[in-house]
Amino acid sequence: MATIDYESKIPNNVDLASDKRLQRALEKWQPDYLDWWKQMGPTDFEDKDIYLRTAVSVESAGWAHFGHVKMPDYRWGIFLEPHAADRKVSFGDHIGVDAWQEVPGEFRTDLRRIIVTQADTEPASVEQQRLLGHTAPSLYDMRNLFQVNVEEGRHLWAMVYLLHRYFGKDGRNEADELLERRSGNEDRPRILGTFNEPITTWLDFFMFAMFTDRDGKFQLLALAESGFDPLARTCKFMLTEEAHHLFVGQTGIGRVIMRTCEVMNAYPDADVTEHGVVPLDMIQRYINFWVSSSTDLYGGEVSSNAANFFAAGLKGRCYEEKRYTEHTAMQESYVIEKLVDGKIVKEEVPLRNALNEVLRTDYLDDNQKGVDYWNRILSKANIDFEFCLPHRRFNREIGIYANNRFDTQGNPLTEAEFVANQDKWLPKDEDRQYVSSLMVSVTEPGKYAGWIAPPSKDLNGQAADFDYVRL
Ligand code: BYC
Ligand code: FE
Ligand code: FE
């Protein structure tokens, strides 16, 4: 069923009405979700009409409907890609068996853990971004923020459906706990590190949408290959929503860079902070921070969890079916670089144990494309500067590099060398204070704050002075 039932309390394309118990359980979770949204979602904009897109079909052509809605009235629902009749498990130890439509008993714990970890990031990001509406640089940006927020809320719905439908009582308990943990809370933090980092400015928000939502893209690509068919179908539809989040991040940073270039060209000898834009080296430090934190989200370089998830057919490599011909990952090995006695040495590990690192490498390659896009903005403006990604070893807190220090090129450092240089590599207090000082709210349609260029084109063919948010 591709069309979405918008008549029922919970919009869905999974024929929820035919399973009364499940429907009742989800309808019981719904008010708790709405309470959470009121408490932890974007503050103070509940009664405003926002120009949002809502899914009306899961077909690739024209799934979105645009219109002004109030966020609490957004139709959060359950949308899965259509079911392919003869789908098989395509990797791991069970290649060729029918894709699972129910949870195989022996994989229940692992699968629940993957789904809970994925689910936990979605409300976390909404919590991290809840105050940003107050300092939006334009109505266009404010609307994009709220679009991202409601869709992350929907991603939570997507995972909660799986927990309720396939994991019985413990699934329902996990769904409740997803509304109880809080980003950054000492006692009940979100599961993964980056989702406890504060997002206090729009520069952080754009960095997060660029680099952390991109972890979402790659984890979802890996889960879209899952032999557990409902998870694969859910993730495929989530990926179509994710593309816009990445666009917001990449073009957001691009517009900050563009504005700084304009000022640099207009006042070649000036300190750009006197003109209220973000210096390029400061942008590089924000890149270093958010990339390194998001690089941690792939887990350890050598991981028996990753090997087990793959062996079971629960989590593949990205584009597993399309891109690879050998799907057991049993024959090959993978070379990992390790620090031994102060030197980097290569070590071969069985490929299955290195799958976190394989996915991380795909992620870093994709990041590089965004960096290339920003460097083209610089060269078009004739500015002699180049952004680069920090090395994967830089500033890590998870995995084999976590207990050592490295520079942004990946060279080992002593703790003292790192401390002496860290203000060059990571945002320092003055950077954060300066970027915060630029965060002023601009709410006149078609106007933009001085630190960011307008987008090259407006959304959905709208005019430049369109009222994306009616305040
Ligand atoms: N922070 O074997 P290891 C998104 C834990 S983003 C804290 O090395 P594994 C989104 C790990 O849990 C996509 N803890 O790792 C983006 C384990 O703990 P336990 C999110 C971490 O299990 C923006 C221990 O360290 N989806 O959608 O192979 C906005 C050793 O683990 C971290 C997923 O992550 C960390 N960074 O791999 C909104 C997909 N990293 O069990 C949304 C599902 C590791 O020993 N998750 N640990 O207590 C997974 O596939 C895996 O859990 C991971 C970790 C890839 C995250
Ligand atoms: Fe998401
Ligand atoms: Fe996202």
Would you give an account of this structure?
- Strands 2-1-7 form a 3-stranded antiparallel sheet.
- With 471 residues, it is mainly α.
- The protein is built from 12 helices and 7 strands.
- The model has no long low-confidence stretch (mean pLDDT 96).
- The protein has a single domain (16-470), classed as Ribonucleotide Reductase, subunit A (Orthogonal Bundle).
- The protein is globular.
Précis, in short:
This protein is mostly helical and 471 residues long.
Present the secondary structure layout.
Blueprint: H1 20-40, E1 49-55, E2 64-70, H2 108-128, H3 139-166, H4 168-178, H5 202-223, H6 229-266, H7 280-295, H8 304-312, H9 320-323, E3 333-340, E4 343-350, H10 355-380, E5 405-406, E6 412-413, H11 415-425, H12 429-438, E7 469-470
Antiparallel strand pairs: 1-2, 1-7, 3-4, 5-6
Bound molecules: benzoyl coenzyme A and fe (iii) ion (2 copies).
Class inferred from helices and paired strands: mainly alpha
Order of strands in the sheet with most strands: 2-1-7
Uncertain parts: none
The protein's oligomeric status is: single chain
Average pLDDT level: 96
Count of runs of 4 or more consecutive helical residues: 12
- Ends: how far apart? 38 Å
Strand content: 5-15%
Overall number of structural domains: 1
Give helix % range.
40-55%
CATH topology: Ribonucleotide Reductase, subunit A
Overall 3D geometry? globular
Bound molecules: benzoyl coenzyme A, fe (iii) ion
| Fourth-tier CATH superfamily name | Ribonucleotide Reductase, subunit A
Tell me the CATH architecture: Orthogonal Bundle
**Sheet bearing the most strands, described?**
3 strands, antiparallel
Name of the CATH class: Mainly Alpha
Along the chain, the helix and strand elements come as HEEHHHHHHHHEEHEEHHE
Strand segment tally: 7
Q: Give me the Rg, rounded.
A: 23 Å
